[in-house]
Write a structure and sequence with these properties.
Blueprint (H helix, E strand, L loop, with lengths): L2 H11 L5 H8 L7 H12 L3 E5 L6 E5 L1
Helix pairs in contact: 2-3
Length: 65
């Protein structure tokens, strides 16, 4: 499975999760979140994800478009 597909699947199963939370789910807790952050931004530019600040805590959450 391509990394973008892993990110999209994780967001589909857990809408609104931050890049850090997605990194923990996909790569593990000890990994840096830059890879997920870059992929999420790329997917947002393609119109597949929406990245918005969550009302609860102000962190950026990822949602499917």
């Amino acid at each position: 499975m391509a990394f973008k597909d892993k990110v999209l699947a994780a967001v589909a199963a857990n809408p609104g999760r931050t890049d850090r939370e997605l990194t923990n789910m996909i790569l593990g807790r000890r990994k840096d979140q830059q890879q997920v952050n870059g992929e999420a931004r790329h997917l947002a530019n393609l119109g597949l994800l929406r990245r918005v600040k969550r009302d609860l805590d102000g962190y950026i959450g990822n949602y499917l478009e």
